[in-house]
Write a structure and sequence with these properties.
The chain is α+β, with helices and mostly antiparallel strands and 231 residues long. It has helices spanning 19-27, 29-32, 95-103, 108-111, 193-196, 203-223; strands at residues 39-42, 49-55, 58-68, 72-75, 83-91, 115-120, 131-138, 141-152, 156-163, 168-178, 181-190. A seven-stranded antiparallel beta sheet has the order 5-11-10-9-8-7-6, covered by helices on one side. Strands 1-2-3-4 form a four-stranded antiparallel beta sheet.
């Protein structure tokens, strides 16, 4: 913990186990989550990743500073990305058709539940650097934001916020799944804790429910459309 001495909190406990055994509970994910968080990604070496999921979709991240087997573990951690959730599903439509639909902001209000309006601010076609303005409602609040396309491939569309009350990144994945179907994923990352104040602890689960519903809407809309001839 950083800051002046009066900001330091020290806790001590006597554990009825040898030091080597206690050490394992700080460096093995399956043991860490039995007392801290619900999932963990650990690289127990100086500079290695120390990351655990506090509640559904909300992660704390840091790194190992010192690792002395059987004696000492020093880590940093904090809420680097308060929300990091992904929903996946399979849609009975060819990948190219799914990708084309997801890339057109004019379709957003048809499948994304909270979006009230969306418009492309830059010339067509959508490409890396394109910007999309959206107005949405979420957890009772109106959100006006602009996202910029940072990655556009046959399998993925990634966007980051360039004007928003909080930082966010949205990634759509669309991979061919065989038999004319597509595996689709929606990942949302962001830190809106200050914007939503008391509702911050609910963000992860709420975002997961929201994008899961959105994927169901996307599946319904696309599977109801006539399939191109020859597919």
């Amino acid at each position: 913990m950083s800051g002046p001495p009066h900001d330091v909190v020290t806790c001590q406990a006597v554990v009825p186990a040898p030091p080597q055994e206690v050490f394992r509970w700080f460096v093995r994910p399956e043991l860490l989550v039995r007392w801290l968080g619900i999932a963990a990604e650990l690289e127990p070496r100086p500079g290695g990743r120390f990351r655990f999921e506090v509640t559904d979709g909300q992660w704390c991240s840091g790194h190992y500073v010192e690792v002395v087997p059987g004696r000492r573990v020093v880590v940093t951690w904090g809420v680097a990305m308060a929300v990091d959730v992904t929903a996946t599903g399979t849609i009975r439509c060819p990948r190219d058709q799914v990708a084309a639909y997801l890339r057109d902001p004019a379709n957003d209000t048809e499948w994304i539940g909270g979006v009230r309006s969306a418009r492309l601010l830059t010339p067509r076609p959508v490409a890396v650097g394109s910007q999309v303005e959206r107005v949405a409602t979420f957890l009772g609040r109106r959100v006006h934001y602009v996202n910029e396309v940072t990655e556009l491939t046959a399998d993925q569309l990634a966007m980051r916020s360039v004007r928003s009350p909080f930082p966010m990144r949205v990634t759509y994945g669309h991979r061919a799944a065989g038999d004319g179907a597509t595996e689709v994923s929606v990942q949302v990352q962001g830190d809106a804790g200050h914007f939503y104040a008391l509702a911050a602890p609910l963000l992860g689960p709420a975002v997961r429910r929201s994008i899961t519903r959105d994927l169901r809407n996307l599946k319904r809309v696309l599977e109801a459309r006539p399939r191109p001839s020859g597919t």
